[in-house]
Amino acid sequence: MTKQLHVIYVPGLGDKKVDGQRRAVNAWRLWGVEPELFQMNWGDKKPWLPKFQRLLARIDELSEQNKPVALVGVSAGASAVINAYAARKGKIAGVVCIAGKINRPQAIDQRYYVNNISFVTSAHDCEQALQTLTADDRARILSRFAALDLRVTREDSRVPGAHNRLSPTIGHVLTIAVQLIFGAPSFLRFLKHQLAN
Question: What is the CA radius of gyration of the chain?
Fold first, then answer.
């Protein structure tokens, strides 16, 4: 019998107020997974490395408990989960990115360098992390992005060799909300399928 998948969800920059996201993520239990919301605290002006180490430590802790782990990241959180996946490939069944800022870190607006420097560093590290992923690694990634998103473009979210899927939505926040609620059954099935393989 396959063990229950533990899904770590990493929100984006607005992770100070996550009540709505927490409710949506907790509902994933209905699809037979154990969800966990993991806040990076992007806006606390602290550096990226301690945040990243905290995420890796949580993955290691779950792995030591023999719990299979998958990652879901939205917006800035997508860069974090790609970085974690590259660092812990053997411990992660699969990854889902939603409206994820994964590519083109050089296009990040300068205002983020003031209040969200950890995100900027994560995005630059993500570019390097992607280069370490093999074709088989990329096949375990599902990236969903909006038909139109002025904050994070399709170009920012596409991962060559991954399962890239268009969400029939317009806008960054709306795309995330729709996917967390209505897209969850299908992307959780994707993650459970990766675990079974």
Answer: 15
